Amino acid sequence: MLFFSIANFCILFISCHVFGVVYGSAAENKNGESDAELKSNKMKMTRENFFKAAFLETRLHQKEAIKSVLKFENYEKQYKICNKALEKIFQVVTAGKVIVENSDYIPGANLPSNETVAAALEQIVDNTAMFGDFQLKLPDITDRIMKNHPEWLVLMKWAIGFSNSTGIFDKKTTEMIDLLCQEMNLIERKDNFINPYRKYEEKVSF
């Protein structure tokens, strides 16, 4: 696919990914489960594996997008890209939040089988991780943008909690989210916490 600009490159991977569910083949019931229970458990396992695999694939593209932004040494170019990307991130998270909150899905419960709800959940999780990349890798610019949108902080706090409850994050992303929460002062910073990407000592308060 041809990307016409780095901004489009970033925004594309923020909001676009494919949703689908692949079920495993039939297997012999060795645990005394009924056929219905066995089928339900297999479908649950397959859904979870799919969600996690899809998330990891998305993360690869997101990391490449951030690397591309970091290659720009011009602050204004980075700011423009970051601003557009954050606008898209919060647009997607807002839309996803409406869908999951108006569904029967309970955060922390089994992942939804309804495709619309599942797609919304995926987008929330994906974009929460993408925001973490911007906040940690471009902290000064992201702080400046977030300061102008206090409602985004409230939404991101919700998105972090929601995403953590799904169990989709892999170990590396979970560690990144912990650093994100420290960076944003949502949790107490560890004594050895430092963000090497921050260029200015002054921390913008949200």
TrEMBL record:
UniProt KW Cytoplasm keyword: no
Keywords: Signal
Signal sequence interval, chain numbering: 1-24
Entry-linked Pfam families: ERK-JNK_inhib
Highest taxon listed in the record's lineage: Eukaryota
Protein name: Coiled-coil domain-containing protein 134
Organism lineage string: Eukaryota, Metazoa, Ecdysozoa, Arthropoda, Chelicerata
Gene: Ccdc134
